[in-house]
């Protein structure tokens, strides 16, 4: 006794899975973009960071985690001083206070998924 | 205060204005104060001062020291959206602290006990101690908004020995891995603190002196609440005053009339009930 799944059903299921996979990928990109734009905007407006340093902020995936920060040794010391402060400048805490930014990015990603019928 | 750390620095003078943020910062400073750096036998121990932000240039710079910086006030969404059964777990003060060593003569020894969730830290002016003078009074706030205060705590030292000693104290006593409970005097609560991150900043250059500068940076969060409703005083009625009038022949007295004055009791002199029109 066997059980046969019609090919058209398999094709439909595959299309459905691919659709959701694409929607999830797009949502991830959207979330990355949202976080990056918001953090750069906040950094550019902050006196300790400024537009030049803000432009160096980037996001990337590494070791199954998403990172945000400064890549490249050229601006690390400036970014470190802006983030943690020194005897001249108060710490900004920009990279350590991203709760609202991350929540907003998650909302945008969820809205995107909902618009694609993923929920 | 954790074991091994003795508070010895004076409270912040805020002229009775101990409210949101000020209350938590005062408690945090007290929590961090009192570390006494051991010195060689011939020298006295050095107490580690605690500053809000980097101390002014006018102050004699004494190493090591600790600085406190407020980074952010952020909504605590986890607690804001958590299930809270108002019936089982009300956010109210209630009752008084009573010494019942002698059950026949209970003695009121303090303010109301907390029931349920945290109460927002407020000035003692606007929120007098409950029940201290009149045990039948109480205060109630119907709702509040949980937030998190994010702080950067930095230890500064010019020797590796001092730096490591403070690290050990911070990891074991001041901010151990488990949640730390901060006692806030303003509203007599224990607030949960979390160490969010630790950063070694020894490589940071400083232009202040040519000294080597060892910095260790701790990012922490402290639970706090912002009231979103007005405070309501609740007073238990101790006497009920009821006036009876004959509507047909008597004029009603004002609502706030003197209830201790002589009253005419009309009972027994009422007119016959009239049918409704």
Mean pLDDT of chain A: 90
Secondary structure: helix percent of chain A: 55-70%
The strand order across the widest sheet of chain A is 1-2
The CATH topology of chain B is: STM4215-like
Give the proportion of residues in helices of chain B. 10-25%
How big a fraction of the residues of chain A is strand? 5-15%
- Which term fits the overall shape of chain A? elongated
What structural category characterises the helix and strand content of chain A? mainly alpha
Structural class of chain B: mainly beta
| Termini separation of chain A | 36 Å
If helices are DSSP runs of H or I spanning 4 or more residues, what is the number of helices of chain B? 3
Secondary-structure element sequence of chain B? HEEEEHEEEEEEHEEEE
User: Residue ranges of chain B: pLDDT <50 for 5 or more in a row?
Assistant: 1-14, 90-96, 112-132
The CATH architecture of chain B can be named as 2-Layer Sandwich
> What is the assembly state of the chains in this entry?
heterodimer
Task: Annotate the secondary structure layout.
The complex is a heterodimer of chains A (119) and B (277).
Chain A: H1 7-45, H2 50-54, E1 57-62, E2 65-70, H3 76-84, H4 99-115
Antiparallel strand pairs in A: 1-2
Chain B: H1 22-32, E1 36-37, E2 46-47, E3 50-52, E4 65-75, H2 77-80, E5 92-94, E6 97-99, E7 107-110, E8 113-115, E9 137-140, E10 144-157, H3 160-174, E11 180-184, E12 189-200, E13 214-227, E14 232-235
Parallel strand pairs in B: 3-4
Antiparallel strand pairs in B: 1-2, 4-10, 5-8, 6-7, 9-14, 10-13, 11-12, 12-13
């Amino acid at each position: 006794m066997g059980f046969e799944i019609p090919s058209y059903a398999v094709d439909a299921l595959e299309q459905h899975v691919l659709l959701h996979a694409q929607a999830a990928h797009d949502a991830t990109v959207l979330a990355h973009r949202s976080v990056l734009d918001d953090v750069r905007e906040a950094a550019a407006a902050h006196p300790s960071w400024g537009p030049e340093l803000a432009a160096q902020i980037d996001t990337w995936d590494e070791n199954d985690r998403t990172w945000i920060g400064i890549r490249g040794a050229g601006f690390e010391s400036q970014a470190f001083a802006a983030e943690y402060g020194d005897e001249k400048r108060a710490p900004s805490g920009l990279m350590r206070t991203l709760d609202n930014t991350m929540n907003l990015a998650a909302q945008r990603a969820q809205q995107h998924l909902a618009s694609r019928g993923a929920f | 205060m954790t074991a091994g750390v003795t508070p010895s620095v004076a409270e912040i003078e805020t002229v009775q204005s101990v409210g949101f943020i000020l209350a938590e910062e005062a408690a945090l400073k007290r929590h961090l104060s009192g570390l006494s750096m051991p010195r060689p036998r011939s020298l006295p121990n050095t107490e580690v001062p605690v500053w809000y932000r980097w101390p002014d240039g006018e102050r004699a710079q004494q190493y090591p020291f600790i600085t406190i910086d407020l980074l952010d006030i952020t909504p605590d969404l986890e607690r804001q959206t958590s299930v809270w059964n108002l019936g089982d777990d009300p956010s109210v003060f209630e009752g008084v602290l009573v010494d019942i060593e002698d059950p026949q003569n209970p003695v009121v020894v303090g303010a109301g006990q907390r029931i349920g969730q945290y109460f927002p830290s407020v000035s003692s002016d606007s929120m007098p101690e409950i029940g201290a003078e009149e045990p039948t009074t109480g205060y109630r706030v119907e709702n509040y908004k949980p937030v998190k205060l994010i702080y950067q705590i930095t230890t500064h030292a010019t020797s590796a020995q001092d730096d490591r000693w403070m690290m050990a104290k911070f990891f074991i006593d001041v901010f151990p891995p488990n949640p730390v409970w901060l006692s806030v005097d303003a509203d007599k609560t224990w607030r949960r603190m979390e160490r969010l991150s630790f950063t070694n900043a020894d490589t940071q250059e400083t232009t202040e002196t040519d000294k080597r500068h060892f910095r260790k940076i701790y990012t922490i969060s402290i639970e706090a609440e912002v009231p979103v409703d007005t405070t309501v005083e609740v007073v238990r009625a101790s006497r009920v005053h009821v006036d009876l009038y004959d509507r047909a022949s008597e004029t009603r007295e004002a609502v706030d009339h003197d209830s201790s004055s002589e009253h005419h009791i009309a009972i027994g002199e009422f007119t016959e009930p009239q049918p409704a029109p």
